[in-house]
Design a protein that fits this description.
Length: 325
């Protein structure tokens, strides 16, 4: 986790921007004259999917140009790209590659998890394929994983992360409304399910503590569960948190500040729609703008939204006596 921590220190900003494009989040200038549906409908053809994938990549480039030097990390959500098939996967890889070339830490939000050899194959996101490629073709510095299958579904990812000096973030207490259905269930020993997962995360990462005191096995802890997040911070003193749910999902700067350690470290906070969709609140946008002007407006809006988030986090951490040192 040292690379992410150092990137955060360089920018003074513990935030990550989720690159989760959808047709509704793109200005019309990026889409041309076509209407697209993803999720509740199919794109009209492979050609349409290819054009939308190119639009996603161009949009991501605009966002990243705006936040470069302000935000240390980006988090592309692979589902948005997989929905477009092969062209979407190419756009995902190209986004990750471009992000790395621009100096961002790249966290692939892939949420994989499976048994044995299948988990090892998925772990190729970090390590590549032995005997075929010495490095991963995905251009990710870390990934998210799902622990539901237990240790044999996680350890292949941890082993790959150790081999390539990368990171893994395990879902522990997620921000979605129905997470309580499983994560809050009580076990016979008195722990909740998410607390059991937290203890497993501690054990999975206890032999990979970096120079800054944090393991390369992190935890996903939603901003929408601030009390649980505070308790997990105490329970997991050497685990770095990825905190989704800020902004659009209801988590506040004060909520997330409580999940940082006493020195204002130990966590990175994600915002997706709040940053990449910020152009929609810009009064200078209208459909008559040229494509170049729309690109510039998306970049500028993303920059201003990222700076606003940075300031909100700084103020909240300072108010709780957690100024970064």
């Amino acid at each position: 986790m040292d690379g992410l921590i150092e990137a955060i220190s360089a920018t003074g900003n513990p935030s990550v921007v989720g690159l989760d494009p959808t047709p509704a989040l793109l200005p019309s200038q990026f889409l041309g004259n076509e209407a697209y549906q993803v999720g509740d409908g199919q794109t009209e053809s492979a050609d349409s999917a290819a054009r939308l994938a190119k639009a996603y990549l161009r949009f991501n480039e605009a966002v990243m140009q705006g936040i470069q030097g302000i935000v240390p990390a980006v988090k592309p959500q692979i589902a948005m790209y997989e929905a477009l098939g092969a062209a979407g996967i190419q756009a995902y890889i190209a986004t990750c590659s471009l992000a790395q070339s621009m100096g961002f830490y790249v966290l692939g939000d892939i949420k994989r998890g499976d048994i044995g050899s299948t988990a090892a194959a998925y772990a190729g996101h970090l390590s590549g394929i032995e005997g075929v490629s010495e490095s991963s073709p995905w251009h990710e510095d870390g990934i998210t994983v799902n622990p539901y299958l237990g240790s044999d579904g996680i350890l292949p990812f941890v082993d790959a992360a150790k081999k390539r000096d990368k990171d893994v973030f395990v879902l522990v207490r997620t921000s979605n409304p129905s997470s309580d259905e499983i994560q809050e269930l009580a076990l016979t020993d008195g722990r909740k399910v998410y607390e059991c997962v937290a203890d497993l995360v501690n054990s999975w990462g206890d032999d990979s503590i970096g120079a800054h005191g944090y393991s390369r096995v992190g935890a996903v802890v939603g901003a929408t569960h601030p009390k649980a997040g505070q308790a997990l911070r105490r329970r997991m003193p050497h685990t770095f948190f990825l905190i989704p749910g800020f902004g659009a999902q209801g988590g506040s700067a004060d909520d997330v500040a409580a999940m940082f350690d006493a020195h204002g470290s130990g966590a990175v906070v994600n915002s997706s729609r709040g940053i990449i969709g910020s152009w929609r609140k810009n009064p200078e946008y209208d459909t008559t703008l040229t494509a170049e002007d729309a690109f510039t407006l998306v970049s500028g809006s993303s920059r201003e939204a990222a700076l606003s988030m940075k300031e909100a986090l700084r103020h909240a951490l300072s108010a709780q006596g957690k100024d970064r040192t």
